[in-house]
Design brief:
By secondary structure, the chain is of the alpha+beta class. The chain is 52% helix and 18% strand. The protein has 4 domains: 185 residues, Orthogonal Bundle (Triger factor/SurA peptide-binding fold), CATH 1.10.4030; 133 residues, no CATH class; 112 residues; 92 residues, Chitinase A, domain 3 (Roll). The strands form 7 sheets. Strands 18-5-20-19 form a 4-stranded antiparallel sheet.
Length: 626
Protein backbone atom coordinates (compact mmCIF):
# COMPACT_ATOMS: atom_id res chain seq x y z
CA UNK A 1 0.00 0.00 0.00
CA UNK A 2 2.76 2.43 0.96
CA UNK A 3 4.71 1.71 -2.21
CA UNK A 4 1.63 2.34 -4.33
CA UNK A 5 0.95 5.64 -2.62
CA UNK A 6 4.54 6.74 -2.97
CA UNK A 7 4.41 5.84 -6.66
CA UNK A 8 1.22 7.86 -7.01
CA UNK A 9 2.95 10.78 -5.38
CA UNK A 10 5.45 10.82 -8.27
CA UNK A 11 2.77 11.12 -10.95
CA UNK A 12 3.07 14.13 -13.21
CA UNK A 13 -0.24 15.63 -12.19
CA UNK A 14 0.64 15.51 -8.48
CA UNK A 15 3.76 17.51 -9.19
CA UNK A 16 1.69 20.17 -10.85
CA UNK A 17 -1.32 20.49 -8.55
CA UNK A 18 0.03 21.85 -5.27
CA UNK A 19 -3.14 20.88 -3.45
CA UNK A 20 -2.20 17.21 -3.87
CA UNK A 21 1.54 17.43 -3.38
CA UNK A 22 1.02 17.73 0.35
CA UNK A 23 -0.59 14.30 0.46
CA UNK A 24 2.62 12.71 -0.75
CA UNK A 25 4.46 14.52 2.04
CA UNK A 26 1.87 13.36 4.56
CA UNK A 27 1.93 9.74 3.51
CA UNK A 28 5.70 9.58 3.24
CA UNK A 29 6.02 10.88 6.79
CA UNK A 30 3.81 8.17 8.26
CA UNK A 31 6.08 5.35 7.17
CA UNK A 32 9.05 6.79 9.02
CA UNK A 33 7.30 7.15 12.36
CA UNK A 34 8.96 5.50 15.36
CA UNK A 35 11.96 4.20 13.39
CA UNK A 36 15.47 4.71 14.63
CA UNK A 37 18.54 2.72 15.43
CA UNK A 38 21.11 5.17 16.75
CA UNK A 39 22.76 4.34 20.06
CA UNK A 40 22.03 7.92 21.12
CA UNK A 41 18.35 7.32 21.77
CA UNK A 42 15.73 8.98 23.97
CA UNK A 43 14.03 5.82 25.22
CA UNK A 44 13.39 2.17 24.43
CA UNK A 45 9.84 0.97 24.99
CA UNK A 46 9.68 -2.81 25.21
CA UNK A 47 12.75 -2.82 23.00
CA UNK A 48 11.36 -0.33 20.44
CA UNK A 49 13.54 2.76 20.15
CA UNK A 50 12.46 6.39 20.24
CA UNK A 51 15.32 8.33 18.67
CA UNK A 52 16.80 11.67 19.66
CA UNK A 53 15.53 13.15 16.38
CA UNK A 54 11.95 12.10 17.14
CA UNK A 55 12.11 13.63 20.62
CA UNK A 56 13.73 16.83 19.33
CA UNK A 57 10.98 17.17 16.71
CA UNK A 58 8.28 16.62 19.34
CA UNK A 59 9.83 19.23 21.66
CA UNK A 60 10.17 21.74 18.84
CA UNK A 61 6.54 21.27 17.82
CA UNK A 62 5.43 21.82 21.40
CA UNK A 63 7.63 24.91 21.67
CA UNK A 64 6.10 26.34 18.49
CA UNK A 65 2.56 25.79 19.73
CA UNK A 66 3.31 27.35 23.13
CA UNK A 67 5.02 30.32 21.48
CA UNK A 68 1.92 30.99 19.39
CA UNK A 69 -0.38 30.59 22.39
CA UNK A 70 1.64 32.56 24.97
CA UNK A 71 3.58 35.04 22.80
CA UNK A 72 6.15 37.03 24.75
CA UNK A 73 5.30 35.18 27.98
CA UNK A 74 6.87 32.04 26.54
CA UNK A 75 10.27 33.75 26.24
CA UNK A 76 10.45 33.99 30.04
CA UNK A 77 9.46 30.33 30.43
CA UNK A 78 11.95 29.21 27.78
CA UNK A 79 14.73 30.89 29.75
CA UNK A 80 14.20 28.43 32.60
CA UNK A 81 16.26 25.25 32.32
CA UNK A 82 13.89 23.49 34.69
CA UNK A 83 10.84 24.37 32.62
CA UNK A 84 12.44 23.29 29.34
CA UNK A 85 13.51 19.97 30.89
CA UNK A 86 9.94 19.47 32.07
CA UNK A 87 8.69 20.25 28.54
CA UNK A 88 11.13 17.70 27.11
CA UNK A 89 10.02 15.06 29.62
CA UNK A 90 6.34 15.67 28.81
CA UNK A 91 7.07 15.32 25.10
CA UNK A 92 8.93 12.06 25.74
CA UNK A 93 6.09 10.72 27.90
CA UNK A 94 3.67 11.41 25.04
CA UNK A 95 5.90 9.53 22.59
CA UNK A 96 6.10 6.61 25.02
CA UNK A 97 2.30 6.50 25.32
CA UNK A 98 1.93 6.55 21.55
CA UNK A 99 4.45 3.72 21.21
CA UNK A 100 2.64 1.62 23.82
CA UNK A 101 -0.70 2.12 22.07
CA UNK A 102 0.78 1.20 18.70
CA UNK A 103 2.37 -1.92 20.13
CA UNK A 104 -0.89 -2.95 21.81
CA UNK A 105 -2.96 -2.18 18.71
CA UNK A 106 -0.68 -4.43 16.63
CA UNK A 107 -1.09 -7.16 19.23
CA UNK A 108 -4.87 -6.92 18.87
CA UNK A 109 -4.69 -6.60 15.09
CA UNK A 110 -6.00 -3.01 15.19
CA UNK A 111 -4.34 -1.22 12.28
CA UNK A 112 -4.61 2.13 10.51
CA UNK A 113 -3.78 2.17 6.82
CA UNK A 114 -2.20 5.05 4.94
CA UNK A 115 -5.44 5.38 2.97
CA UNK A 116 -7.39 5.84 6.22
CA UNK A 117 -5.06 8.65 7.23
CA UNK A 118 -5.41 10.26 3.82
CA UNK A 119 -9.21 9.95 3.90
CA UNK A 120 -9.38 11.36 7.44
CA UNK A 121 -7.39 14.44 6.43
CA UNK A 122 -9.44 14.99 3.27
CA UNK A 123 -12.69 14.63 5.25
CA UNK A 124 -11.74 17.06 8.04
CA UNK A 125 -14.22 20.01 7.79
CA UNK A 126 -11.61 22.54 8.97
CA UNK A 127 -9.56 21.78 5.82
CA UNK A 128 -12.44 22.25 3.38
CA UNK A 129 -13.90 25.08 1.33
CA UNK A 130 -17.35 24.50 -0.17
CA UNK A 131 -17.14 20.86 0.95
CA UNK A 132 -13.91 20.34 -1.01
CA UNK A 133 -10.41 19.78 0.41
CA UNK A 134 -8.53 23.11 0.39
CA UNK A 135 -4.76 22.66 0.46
CA UNK A 136 -4.03 26.28 1.35
CA UNK A 137 -6.43 26.16 4.30
CA UNK A 138 -4.96 22.80 5.35
CA UNK A 139 -1.38 24.11 5.40
CA UNK A 140 -2.36 27.36 7.11
CA UNK A 141 -4.30 25.51 9.80
CA UNK A 142 -1.68 22.91 10.71
CA UNK A 143 1.16 25.45 10.54
CA UNK A 144 -0.86 27.67 12.89
CA UNK A 145 -0.92 24.74 15.32
CA UNK A 146 2.85 24.28 14.98
CA UNK A 147 2.79 21.11 12.81
CA UNK A 148 4.45 20.14 9.56
CA UNK A 149 2.57 17.87 7.15
CA UNK A 150 4.57 14.86 8.37
CA UNK A 151 3.97 15.71 12.03
CA UNK A 152 0.26 16.14 11.48
CA UNK A 153 0.01 12.81 9.67
CA UNK A 154 1.68 11.17 12.67
CA UNK A 155 -0.81 12.86 15.00
CA UNK A 156 -3.72 11.76 12.81
CA UNK A 157 -2.46 8.17 12.88
CA UNK A 158 -2.20 8.28 16.67
CA UNK A 159 -5.75 9.59 16.96
CA UNK A 160 -7.17 6.96 14.62
CA UNK A 161 -5.43 4.16 16.54
CA UNK A 162 -6.68 5.58 19.84
CA UNK A 163 -10.21 5.90 18.48
CA UNK A 164 -10.25 2.29 17.32
CA UNK A 165 -8.96 1.07 20.67
CA UNK A 166 -11.43 3.26 22.54
CA UNK A 167 -14.28 1.98 20.37
CA UNK A 168 -13.16 -1.60 20.90
CA UNK A 169 -13.22 -1.17 24.66
CA UNK A 170 -16.29 1.04 24.55
CA UNK A 171 -18.34 -1.78 23.07
CA UNK A 172 -17.79 -3.78 26.24
CA UNK A 173 -19.05 -0.98 28.51
CA UNK A 174 -22.72 -0.56 29.25
CA UNK A 175 -24.87 1.45 31.67
CA UNK A 176 -28.07 -0.01 33.13
CA UNK A 177 -31.32 1.96 32.73
CA UNK A 178 -31.64 2.22 36.52
CA UNK A 179 -28.16 3.78 36.63
CA UNK A 180 -29.16 6.31 33.97
CA UNK A 181 -32.34 7.17 35.89
CA UNK A 182 -30.56 7.53 39.25
CA UNK A 183 -27.73 9.60 37.80
CA UNK A 184 -30.02 11.92 35.83
CA UNK A 185 -32.23 12.49 38.87
CA UNK A 186 -29.16 13.48 40.87
CA UNK A 187 -27.34 15.55 38.24
CA UNK A 188 -30.45 17.42 37.10
CA UNK A 189 -31.89 17.78 40.59
CA UNK A 190 -33.67 21.08 41.28
CA UNK A 191 -34.08 22.59 44.76
CA UNK A 192 -36.77 25.02 45.95
CA UNK A 193 -35.34 27.66 48.27
CA UNK A 194 -36.44 30.92 49.88
CA UNK A 195 -33.93 33.50 51.14
CA UNK A 196 -33.86 36.24 53.74
CA UNK A 197 -31.02 38.73 53.20
CA UNK A 198 -29.13 40.90 55.65
CA UNK A 199 -28.46 44.12 53.71
CA UNK A 200 -24.80 44.83 54.48
CA UNK A 201 -24.90 48.29 52.89
CA UNK A 202 -27.83 49.38 55.05
CA UNK A 203 -26.15 47.93 58.13
CA UNK A 204 -22.88 49.68 57.26
CA UNK A 205 -24.61 53.08 57.21
CA UNK A 206 -25.53 52.57 60.87
CA UNK A 207 -22.03 51.63 62.03
CA UNK A 208 -19.62 53.90 63.89
CA UNK A 209 -15.84 53.93 63.44
CA UNK A 210 -13.40 55.77 65.71
CA UNK A 211 -10.23 57.43 64.44
CA UNK A 212 -8.15 54.79 66.20
CA UNK A 213 -10.04 52.00 64.43
CA UNK A 214 -9.56 53.72 61.08
CA UNK A 215 -5.84 54.24 61.68
CA UNK A 216 -5.39 50.62 62.80
CA UNK A 217 -7.15 49.30 59.67
CA UNK A 218 -5.02 51.57 57.47
CA UNK A 219 -1.79 50.45 59.17
CA UNK A 220 -2.71 46.76 58.77
CA UNK A 221 -3.85 47.04 55.14
CA UNK A 222 -1.55 49.56 53.50
CA UNK A 223 -1.20 47.33 50.47
CA UNK A 224 -4.84 48.19 49.67
CA UNK A 225 -3.97 51.86 49.27
CA UNK A 226 -0.97 51.78 46.95
CA UNK A 227 -0.97 54.48 44.27
CA UNK A 228 0.62 53.26 41.01
CA UNK A 229 3.29 55.22 39.19
CA UNK A 230 1.87 58.10 37.13
CA UNK A 231 3.38 60.22 34.37
CA UNK A 232 2.40 63.19 32.23
CA UNK A 233 3.72 63.09 28.66
CA UNK A 234 4.35 65.22 25.56
CA UNK A 235 4.71 63.49 22.21
CA UNK A 236 5.13 64.07 18.48
CA UNK A 237 3.55 61.53 16.12
CA UNK A 238 4.72 60.81 12.57
CA UNK A 239 2.27 58.87 10.38
CA UNK A 240 3.21 57.59 6.90
CA UNK A 241 -0.45 57.05 5.97
CA UNK A 242 -1.29 60.68 6.73
CA UNK A 243 1.69 61.80 4.65
CA UNK A 244 0.54 59.62 1.75
CA UNK A 245 -2.73 61.55 1.54
CA UNK A 246 -0.76 64.75 0.95
CA UNK A 247 1.66 63.24 -1.60
CA UNK A 248 1.36 64.31 -5.26
CA UNK A 249 2.05 62.07 -8.26
CA UNK A 250 2.15 63.44 -11.83
CA UNK A 251 1.11 61.72 -15.07
CA UNK A 252 4.76 61.83 -16.11
CA UNK A 253 5.67 59.86 -12.97
CA UNK A 254 3.02 57.27 -13.82
CA UNK A 255 4.11 56.91 -17.46
CA UNK A 256 7.77 56.54 -16.48
CA UNK A 257 6.98 53.82 -13.97
CA UNK A 258 4.77 51.97 -16.48
CA UNK A 259 7.49 52.02 -19.16
CA UNK A 260 10.11 50.74 -16.71
CA UNK A 261 7.97 47.99 -15.16
CA UNK A 262 5.84 46.57 -17.96
CA UNK A 263 6.58 43.05 -16.74
CA UNK A 264 4.47 43.78 -13.66
CA UNK A 265 1.38 44.42 -15.78
CA UNK A 266 1.55 41.49 -18.12
CA UNK A 267 0.29 37.95 -18.33
CA UNK A 268 3.13 35.65 -19.49
CA UNK A 269 2.51 33.10 -22.19
CA UNK A 270 0.43 30.20 -20.90
CA UNK A 271 0.09 26.72 -22.32
CA UNK A 272 -2.49 24.03 -21.77
CA UNK A 273 -1.41 20.39 -21.84
CA UNK A 274 -2.99 16.96 -21.60
CA UNK A 275 -1.08 13.85 -20.48
CA UNK A 276 -1.36 10.08 -20.50
CA UNK A 277 0.79 8.32 -17.88
CA UNK A 278 1.80 4.70 -18.54
CA UNK A 279 2.99 2.14 -16.02
CA UNK A 280 5.99 1.11 -18.14
CA UNK A 281 7.72 1.77 -21.46
CA UNK A 282 5.92 -1.02 -23.32
CA UNK A 283 2.48 0.33 -22.40
CA UNK A 284 3.57 3.85 -23.32
CA UNK A 285 4.73 2.73 -26.77
CA UNK A 286 1.48 0.81 -27.30
CA UNK A 287 -0.58 3.89 -26.40
CA UNK A 288 1.60 6.06 -28.65
CA UNK A 289 0.96 3.68 -31.55
CA UNK A 290 -2.81 3.92 -31.00
CA UNK A 291 -2.61 7.71 -31.00
CA UNK A 292 -0.65 7.72 -34.25
CA UNK A 293 -3.29 5.43 -35.71
CA UNK A 294 -5.95 8.07 -34.95
CA UNK A 295 -7.26 7.05 -31.52
CA UNK A 296 -8.83 9.80 -29.41
CA UNK A 297 -6.37 11.19 -26.84
CA UNK A 298 -9.03 11.94 -24.21
CA UNK A 299 -10.58 8.46 -24.49
CA UNK A 300 -7.19 6.77 -24.05
CA UNK A 301 -6.39 9.02 -21.09
CA UNK A 302 -9.61 7.96 -19.37
CA UNK A 303 -9.07 4.24 -20.00
CA UNK A 304 -5.30 3.79 -20.11
CA UNK A 305 -3.66 6.45 -17.94
CA UNK A 306 -2.52 5.18 -14.55
CA UNK A 307 -2.81 8.73 -13.25
CA UNK A 308 -6.50 8.69 -12.38
CA UNK A 309 -6.58 12.34 -11.34
CA UNK A 310 -5.82 13.62 -14.83
CA UNK A 311 -7.33 10.59 -16.53
CA UNK A 312 -10.82 11.42 -15.33
CA UNK A 313 -10.48 14.74 -17.16
CA UNK A 314 -9.27 13.17 -20.39
CA UNK A 315 -5.67 13.94 -19.42
CA UNK A 316 -6.30 17.72 -19.10
CA UNK A 317 -3.79 19.44 -16.81
CA UNK A 318 -5.12 22.99 -17.18
CA UNK A 319 -3.20 26.18 -17.95
CA UNK A 320 0.48 26.46 -16.99
CA UNK A 321 2.80 29.46 -16.83
CA UNK A 322 6.53 29.09 -17.60
CA UNK A 323 7.58 28.92 -13.95
CA UNK A 324 5.10 26.13 -13.19
CA UNK A 325 5.85 24.05 -16.29
CA UNK A 326 7.85 20.86 -15.67
CA UNK A 327 11.26 20.62 -17.37
CA UNK A 328 10.13 17.47 -19.24
CA UNK A 329 7.28 19.44 -20.79
CA UNK A 330 9.61 22.21 -21.95
CA UNK A 331 12.05 19.66 -23.35
CA UNK A 332 9.29 18.18 -25.51
CA UNK A 333 9.45 21.37 -27.65
CA UNK A 334 5.78 21.29 -28.60
CA UNK A 335 4.97 24.42 -30.64
CA UNK A 336 1.53 23.98 -32.24
CA UNK A 337 -1.93 23.11 -30.96
CA UNK A 338 -2.69 19.40 -31.05
CA UNK A 339 0.98 18.40 -31.38
CA UNK A 340 1.94 15.27 -29.40
CA UNK A 341 5.30 14.41 -27.92
CA UNK A 342 5.65 10.70 -28.34
CA UNK A 343 6.90 8.64 -25.39
CA UNK A 344 8.82 10.67 -22.77
CA UNK A 345 10.80 9.05 -19.94
CA UNK A 346 11.13 10.97 -16.67
CA UNK A 347 11.61 10.40 -12.96
CA UNK A 348 7.85 9.95 -12.79
CA UNK A 349 7.79 7.11 -15.31
CA UNK A 350 6.63 7.19 -18.92
CA UNK A 351 4.09 9.57 -20.39
CA UNK A 352 2.80 11.08 -23.62
CA UNK A 353 2.09 14.80 -23.80
CA UNK A 354 -0.18 16.84 -26.03
CA UNK A 355 -0.18 20.64 -26.40
CA UNK A 356 -3.85 21.70 -26.38
CA UNK A 357 -3.66 25.47 -26.59
CA UNK A 358 -1.37 28.53 -26.33
CA UNK A 359 -2.33 31.89 -24.83
CA UNK A 360 0.18 34.55 -25.97
CA UNK A 361 1.81 37.01 -23.58
CA UNK A 362 -0.36 40.06 -22.89
CA UNK A 363 0.36 43.48 -21.36
CA UNK A 364 -2.40 45.55 -19.73
CA UNK A 365 -2.80 49.08 -21.17
CA UNK A 366 -1.69 52.05 -19.07
CA UNK A 367 -5.26 53.29 -18.62
CA UNK A 368 -6.20 50.03 -16.93
CA UNK A 369 -3.37 50.13 -14.38
CA UNK A 370 -3.05 53.93 -13.98
CA UNK A 371 -4.79 54.20 -10.58
CA UNK A 372 -2.82 51.28 -9.15
CA UNK A 373 0.46 52.91 -10.17
CA UNK A 374 -0.62 56.20 -8.59
CA UNK A 375 -1.34 54.44 -5.29
CA UNK A 376 2.00 52.61 -5.42
CA UNK A 377 4.00 55.75 -6.18
CA UNK A 378 2.19 57.71 -3.48
CA UNK A 379 3.03 55.01 -0.98
CA UNK A 380 6.68 54.91 -2.02
CA UNK A 381 7.05 58.69 -1.94
CA UNK A 382 5.25 58.92 1.40
CA UNK A 383 7.52 56.26 2.91
CA UNK A 384 10.61 58.05 1.63
CA UNK A 385 9.35 61.31 3.14
CA UNK A 386 8.34 59.50 6.33
CA UNK A 387 11.81 58.02 6.89
CA UNK A 388 13.47 61.34 6.03
CA UNK A 389 11.19 63.08 8.56
CA UNK A 390 12.05 60.49 11.20
CA UNK A 391 15.74 61.23 10.80
CA UNK A 392 15.18 64.97 10.85
CA UNK A 393 13.04 64.85 14.01
CA UNK A 394 15.42 62.38 15.69
CA UNK A 395 18.39 64.70 15.12
CA UNK A 396 16.47 67.70 16.47
CA UNK A 397 15.22 65.82 19.55
CA UNK A 398 18.71 64.55 20.46
CA UNK A 399 20.47 67.88 19.79
CA UNK A 400 17.98 69.81 21.97
CA UNK A 401 17.30 67.42 24.85
CA UNK A 402 15.74 69.95 27.20
CA UNK A 403 12.35 70.08 25.43
CA UNK A 404 10.54 69.08 22.26
CA UNK A 405 10.67 72.60 20.81
CA UNK A 406 13.33 71.81 18.19
CA UNK A 407 11.64 68.51 17.33
CA UNK A 408 8.34 70.37 16.85
CA UNK A 409 10.01 72.74 14.41
CA UNK A 410 11.59 69.86 12.49
CA UNK A 411 8.27 67.97 12.35
CA UNK A 412 6.27 71.04 11.35
CA UNK A 413 3.70 70.33 14.03
CA UNK A 414 3.08 70.99 17.71
CA UNK A 415 3.54 68.26 20.31
CA UNK A 416 0.47 66.77 21.98
CA UNK A 417 0.16 66.67 25.78
CA UNK A 418 -1.53 64.24 28.17
CA UNK A 419 -2.80 64.42 31.72
CA UNK A 420 -1.35 62.08 34.37
CA UNK A 421 -1.91 58.39 33.61
CA UNK A 422 -0.75 55.01 34.88
CA UNK A 423 0.61 52.03 32.96
CA UNK A 424 -2.87 50.48 33.20
CA UNK A 425 -4.74 53.38 31.53
CA UNK A 426 -2.42 54.69 28.82
CA UNK A 427 -4.15 57.14 26.42
CA UNK A 428 -5.22 55.35 23.25
CA UNK A 429 -3.20 57.66 20.97
CA UNK A 430 0.11 56.37 22.40
CA UNK A 431 -0.99 52.97 23.70
CA UNK A 432 1.57 50.92 21.76
CA UNK A 433 3.82 48.41 23.48
CA UNK A 434 7.18 49.98 22.40
CA UNK A 435 5.98 53.44 23.47
CA UNK A 436 4.63 52.27 26.84
CA UNK A 437 7.81 50.33 27.50
CA UNK A 438 9.98 53.38 26.80
CA UNK A 439 7.81 55.61 29.02
CA UNK A 440 7.79 53.31 32.04
CA UNK A 441 11.27 51.74 31.98
CA UNK A 442 12.71 54.75 33.83
CA UNK A 443 15.15 55.87 31.14
CA UNK A 444 13.21 59.08 30.33
CA UNK A 445 12.79 60.21 33.95
CA UNK A 446 15.34 62.49 35.57
CA UNK A 447 16.75 62.53 39.09
CA UNK A 448 14.13 62.63 41.85
CA UNK A 449 11.34 62.31 39.28
CA UNK A 450 12.21 65.46 37.36
CA UNK A 451 11.73 65.60 33.55
CA UNK A 452 14.50 63.70 31.81
CA UNK A 453 15.57 63.43 28.18
CA UNK A 454 13.68 63.08 24.93
CA UNK A 455 13.22 59.58 23.60
CA UNK A 456 14.70 58.24 20.40
CA UNK A 457 12.29 57.75 17.53
CA UNK A 458 9.99 54.85 18.51
CA UNK A 459 8.44 52.97 15.59
CA UNK A 460 5.18 51.03 15.95
CA UNK A 461 2.97 48.96 13.66
CA UNK A 462 1.27 50.68 10.76
CA UNK A 463 4.23 52.85 9.67
CA UNK A 464 3.91 55.22 12.58
CA UNK A 465 6.58 56.62 14.87
CA UNK A 466 6.75 58.75 18.03
CA UNK A 467 9.16 60.95 19.93
CA UNK A 468 8.04 61.22 23.57
CA UNK A 469 9.06 63.16 26.64
CA UNK A 470 8.00 62.70 30.29
CA UNK A 471 6.92 66.14 31.57
CA UNK A 472 6.05 65.08 35.13
CA UNK A 473 6.31 61.96 37.26
CA UNK A 474 4.66 60.59 40.40
CA UNK A 475 6.38 57.57 41.91
CA UNK A 476 4.40 54.58 43.09
CA UNK A 477 3.75 54.51 46.85
CA UNK A 478 1.24 54.15 49.63
CA UNK A 479 -1.34 56.93 49.68
CA UNK A 480 -1.28 58.95 52.91
CA UNK A 481 -3.98 58.22 55.45
CA UNK A 482 -5.57 61.65 55.08
CA UNK A 483 -6.07 61.07 51.35
CA UNK A 484 -7.83 57.72 51.79
CA UNK A 485 -9.61 58.29 55.11
CA UNK A 486 -13.08 58.29 53.52
CA UNK A 487 -12.31 55.02 51.73
CA UNK A 488 -10.97 53.48 54.93
CA UNK A 489 -14.11 54.58 56.79
CA UNK A 490 -16.36 52.84 54.26
CA UNK A 491 -14.28 49.66 54.42
CA UNK A 492 -14.27 49.55 58.23
CA UNK A 493 -18.01 50.15 58.44
CA UNK A 494 -18.65 47.49 55.79
CA UNK A 495 -16.48 45.00 57.64
CA UNK A 496 -18.33 45.71 60.90
CA UNK A 497 -21.67 45.31 59.11
CA UNK A 498 -20.65 41.95 57.61
CA UNK A 499 -19.35 40.72 60.98
CA UNK A 500 -22.59 41.77 62.67
CA UNK A 501 -24.77 40.17 59.97
CA UNK A 502 -22.90 36.85 60.32
CA UNK A 503 -23.42 36.86 64.10
CA UNK A 504 -27.09 37.80 63.74
CA UNK A 505 -27.55 35.14 61.05
CA UNK A 506 -26.18 32.44 63.33
CA UNK A 507 -28.60 33.48 66.09
CA UNK A 508 -31.49 33.52 63.62
CA UNK A 509 -30.50 30.10 62.26
CA UNK A 510 -30.65 28.61 65.77
CA UNK A 511 -34.09 30.15 66.34
CA UNK A 512 -35.38 28.78 63.00
CA UNK A 513 -34.16 25.26 63.80
CA UNK A 514 -35.86 25.48 67.22
CA UNK A 515 -39.16 26.51 65.65
CA UNK A 516 -38.96 30.12 66.89
CA UNK A 517 -38.16 31.61 63.50
CA UNK A 518 -41.20 33.81 62.97
CA UNK A 519 -40.52 36.00 66.01
CA UNK A 520 -36.79 36.08 65.29
CA UNK A 521 -37.36 37.13 61.66
CA UNK A 522 -39.75 39.87 62.73
CA UNK A 523 -37.27 41.13 65.32
CA UNK A 524 -34.56 41.27 62.65
CA UNK A 525 -36.87 43.02 60.19
CA UNK A 526 -36.50 40.15 57.69
CA UNK A 527 -38.78 37.82 55.76
CA UNK A 528 -38.30 35.00 53.32
CA UNK A 529 -38.87 35.84 49.67
CA UNK A 530 -40.60 33.91 46.91
CA UNK A 531 -39.41 30.47 45.89
CA UNK A 532 -36.22 30.21 43.82
CA UNK A 533 -35.47 27.21 41.63
CA UNK A 534 -31.77 26.34 42.05
CA UNK A 535 -29.95 23.85 39.80
CA UNK A 536 -26.33 22.73 39.69
CA UNK A 537 -24.13 24.57 37.21
CA UNK A 538 -20.76 23.64 35.73
CA UNK A 539 -19.04 26.21 37.98
CA UNK A 540 -21.30 26.54 41.02
CA UNK A 541 -21.23 29.68 43.13
CA UNK A 542 -20.79 29.57 46.90
CA UNK A 543 -24.53 30.08 47.21
CA UNK A 544 -25.30 27.04 45.00
CA UNK A 545 -22.79 24.90 46.89
CA UNK A 546 -24.37 25.85 50.21
CA UNK A 547 -27.86 25.11 48.88
CA UNK A 548 -26.81 21.62 47.78
CA UNK A 549 -24.97 21.01 51.04
CA UNK A 550 -28.23 21.25 52.99
CA UNK A 551 -29.98 17.99 54.01
CA UNK A 552 -33.27 17.20 52.30
CA UNK A 553 -36.37 18.41 54.16
CA UNK A 554 -37.94 15.71 56.37
CA UNK A 555 -41.58 15.34 57.41
CA UNK A 556 -42.56 18.59 55.72
CA UNK A 557 -40.05 20.61 57.73
CA UNK A 558 -37.62 22.81 55.77
CA UNK A 559 -33.84 22.77 56.13
CA UNK A 560 -31.98 25.95 56.94
CA UNK A 561 -28.49 27.23 56.22
CA UNK A 562 -26.33 30.34 55.80
CA UNK A 563 -24.57 31.65 52.70
CA UNK A 564 -23.56 34.85 50.93
CA UNK A 565 -24.96 36.37 47.73
CA UNK A 566 -22.87 37.82 44.91
CA UNK A 567 -22.89 41.25 46.63
CA UNK A 568 -21.37 39.94 49.85
CA UNK A 569 -24.62 40.03 51.83
CA UNK A 570 -25.24 37.30 54.40
CA UNK A 571 -28.24 35.18 53.39
CA UNK A 572 -30.43 32.76 55.36
CA UNK A 573 -31.46 29.83 53.13
CA UNK A 574 -34.73 27.96 53.61
CA UNK A 575 -34.83 24.70 51.62
CA UNK A 576 -38.42 23.50 51.16
CA UNK A 577 -38.26 20.86 48.42
CA UNK A 578 -35.85 18.68 46.47
CA UNK A 579 -37.12 17.76 42.98
CA UNK A 580 -35.38 14.92 41.13
CA UNK A 581 -34.39 15.59 37.53
CA UNK A 582 -36.62 14.23 34.77
CA UNK A 583 -35.78 13.32 31.18
CA UNK A 584 -37.83 12.47 28.13
CA UNK A 585 -37.14 9.10 26.50
CA UNK A 586 -34.97 10.79 23.85
CA UNK A 587 -33.04 12.79 26.45
CA UNK A 588 -32.60 9.66 28.58
CA UNK A 589 -31.13 7.79 25.59
CA UNK A 590 -28.70 10.62 24.93
CA UNK A 591 -27.76 10.84 28.62
CA UNK A 592 -27.17 7.07 28.68
CA UNK A 593 -24.85 7.43 25.67
CA UNK A 594 -22.91 10.16 27.46
CA UNK A 595 -22.55 8.00 30.56
CA UNK A 596 -21.37 5.10 28.43
CA UNK A 597 -18.83 7.35 26.70
CA UNK A 598 -17.53 8.47 30.09
CA UNK A 599 -17.26 4.85 31.17
CA UNK A 600 -15.43 3.99 27.94
CA UNK A 601 -12.99 6.86 28.45
CA UNK A 602 -12.28 5.68 31.98
CA UNK A 603 -11.69 2.15 30.69
CA UNK A 604 -9.32 3.43 28.01
CA UNK A 605 -7.42 5.54 30.55
CA UNK A 606 -7.10 2.47 32.75
CA UNK A 607 -5.78 0.48 29.77
CA UNK A 608 -3.10 3.07 29.09
CA UNK A 609 -2.13 3.20 32.77
CA UNK A 610 -1.81 -0.61 32.80
CA UNK A 611 0.33 -0.56 29.64
CA UNK A 612 2.64 1.97 31.29
CA UNK A 613 2.84 -0.17 34.43
CA UNK A 614 3.77 -3.33 32.53
CA UNK A 615 6.11 -1.69 30.00
CA UNK A 616 9.88 -2.00 30.10
CA UNK A 617 11.12 1.50 29.44
CA UNK A 618 14.80 2.32 29.28
CA UNK A 619 15.82 5.97 29.02
CA UNK A 620 18.80 7.04 26.91
CA UNK A 621 21.09 10.04 27.04
CA UNK A 622 18.88 12.00 24.62
CA UNK A 623 16.10 12.12 27.22
CA UNK A 624 17.94 15.00 28.90
CA UNK A 625 18.51 18.49 27.49
CA UNK A 626 21.79 18.65 25.61
Amino acid sequence: MMDNLRAAANHVVLKIILGLIVLSFVLTGVGNYLIGGSSDYAAKVNGQEISRAQLDDAVQNQRSRLQQQLGDQFAALAGSDGYMQQLRQQSLNNLIDVTLLEQYSKKLGVTVSDQQIKDAILATPQFQTNNQFDNAKYLQTIQGMGYTADNFAQLMKQQLVSQQLAQAYGESDFVLPIETKSMSELVLQERDVHTATFNASALAAKQQASDSELQAFYDQNKNMFVAPEEIKVSYIEMDAAAMQAKTQVTDADVSAYYDQHKSEFGQPERRRYSVIVAKDQADAQAIDAQLKAGADFADLAKTKSVDTLSGKKGGDLGWMEPETTLPEFKSANLTSKGQMSGVIKSDSGYFILRLDDIMPEQVKPLAEVHDGIVDKLKQEKALDAYYALQQKVSDAASNDNESLASAEQAAGTKASHTDFFTQQNVPAAINFKPVVQALFDGSLIGHDGTPGSNSDVITVDGDRAFVVRVDAHKAAGVKPFAEVKDQVTQLVKRQKAEDQSRVDAQKLLIALKEGKGDDALKAAGLSFGDVQKVQRTAQPSDFEQNVYALPQPQNGKPSYGISQDDRGNTVIIKLTAVNPGKLTDAEAAQFNQQLQQTSSNNTFDALLANLRHQAKVKFGSAAQNQ
